[in-house]
Amino acid sequence: FYSSIKIFYYWSLIFGCAPYKFIIDTMADTINIKRTIFSVIQSAIAILVVFVWMMYTIIKPIVLNTYESNTTLVVSQIITVCFSGSSCFLSLISSVTINIKKWGFIFEKVLYIDKIILREPQQSYKKTKLFITLQILVTIVLLVSFHAYETLSKKNKMFYKIAMRIFVHVHNVTVTLQFINLVLLLSNRLKIISERLEELSSIFKNSIKLREQRQTNASLFDTQRYSLMGTSAMQNSTNNPVLGHETSDITLDNTNKLNILTGLKQLREVHHIICDILNGVVNSIYGLNILILSTYMFLSCVKYVHLMMIMVVKKPGSESLDLLNINSPGMMLCFIVLHLSKVVLISVACNNASQVCANLNSSINSLLLTYPSGSDVSKELQLLSIQTIHSKLEFTAFDFFPLDFTYFHMFLAGVTTYTVILLQFA
Q1: Contact in structure between 113 and 105 (CB atoms under 8 Å)
Q2: Which long-range contacts (CB under 8 A, 24 or more apart) does 185-188 make?
Q3: What element of type H or E holds 22?
Q4: Residues 6+ apart with CB under 8 A from 112
Q5: 259: closest CA among 376, 153, 349?
């Protein structure tokens, strides 16, 4: 498991999103995490620098009296920088303090789940590693291209401001990717539960076929025996049925029945752990951060869409553009596309996980129709069905709004509405 996430772990470590090290016990096959002195110092320095940068961004316009000439632009820039910096600031603090234990709990439970439901873990981990590697490469290419253009276009401007903005931006992107990857990983494990249920169904169907074949063979044997013994023997046989007819209501032999019951109990446990992580731990780690990031992305999109619309009528001066740390509509469009991409990815990941969990109950209900009512397997399936009904996945931004496709619709509607309002007042 560690090998599949190692690349993303080091990427997160660089930007202060993973202030811990892995302790792998190969003998016991366990993974633990531990806070290190280096990570604490790194996080403390990053927290201090981000805080100073935020204060500098707020105080500088007041000292230089920039509000008098460009009040709207300066205020909007300060607000967006505050939300972006606050997200990074709170994420750094929580990562090095309260989230360490939560991440340790997640890694421990995911490893336990994989031991139960993964038949070929190495194959699954290779796919995860490939997906994460491609994800990191695409992220690096996009961020380097965008910020390289921004840096070169500034020429002799203060590069430390750009460096701070790059660090905060990449940190926030990394936190968003952490959330998305964790949701996708656990939703994949929910899909595997559905696959295991289908396997149990195939075992049951094979048992039925085997029983029918045994009954057919027994009937042929009885017919041949009765034809040799005569009618009187056939009449007497009604009082002494053969073993096959006597146990015709039994559809599973003891071995298959025990395997299915054990498998269903394990699937119930795995389902409970996954839902507990997604509904509880993941929301507590990322809920507030996603809320602040969403507010920042929303305000940025409104600001840049509004400016691009204004530029169609009248191009603002270079001073106004410098206040926004941009030089062209192309850079504004890049910011808008980047923010919308993050909103779409969050919506798709959360909606996919919720849909997989909902479809799981449908699979269980169809499986219940196959098994005879009153059997031990049927009772276990009913317990699993009740568990899935009461364990619906709900992702929220600190309980302010849901993180599914309604989140994306609300985001687009809000940006459009406020842009129109600003244009009317302008």
Answers
A1: no
A2: 185/110, 185/128, 186/110, 186/274, 186/277, 186/278, 186/282, 186/353, 187/349, 187/352, 187/353, 187/356, 187/357
A3: strand 21-25
A4: 273
A5: 376
**Whole-model pTM?**
0.84
Residues of the chain with pLDDT under 50: 226, 228, 231-251, 316-320, 322-323
Q: Which pLDDT tens digit goes with each residue over 59-102?
A: 877 776 655 556 777 778 888 888 999 999 999 999 988 999 99
Q: Which two tokens stand for residue 244?
A: 């096959």
- CA dist., res. 302 & res. 336, Å (int): 9
CA dist 94 and 289 (Å) reads 10
Distance, in Å, from the CA atom of 332 to the CA atom of 326, rounded to the nearest integer, reads 7
The ranges assigned to domains in the chain are: 2-220+249-425
Q: Where are the beta strands (DSSP E) in 26-179?
A: 30-34
At 244, which helix (H) or strand (E)?
helix 243-246
- Three-state SS letters, 159-195: HHHHHHHHHHHHHHHHHHHHHHHHHHHHHHHHHHHHH
Q: How far is CA 217 from CA 214, 223, 252, 363, in A?
A: 5, 10, 18, 33
The C-alpha angle 245, 249, 250, rounded to 5 degrees, equals 100
